[in-house]
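Would you mind writing out a protein's amino acid sequence and the numbers that encode its backbone to help me picture the idea?
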Amino acid sequence: MRATVGDKLVQHGRVVGQHDKVAEIVEVMGTEGTPPYRVRFQDGHEAVCSPGPDSEIRHQEASRHARQ
């Protein structure tokens, strides 16, 4: 898993009815884009996390291409 500042970290809900959590990556603390990441959630909460298998990175370049 590799990310850059500005990418989105999506943590998928693990049980029925639990929504995905989306956070913006504000700092990459590992080498060459690897975890851990400092993230900011939509409610303003910040945390340091090492994403697990229930997470994905949505790269900001891919998001730009999808909008065009």
Q: What stands out?
A: The helical segments are 60-67. The radius of gyration is 12 Å. The chain has one domain: 8-59. Residues 8-59 form one domain.
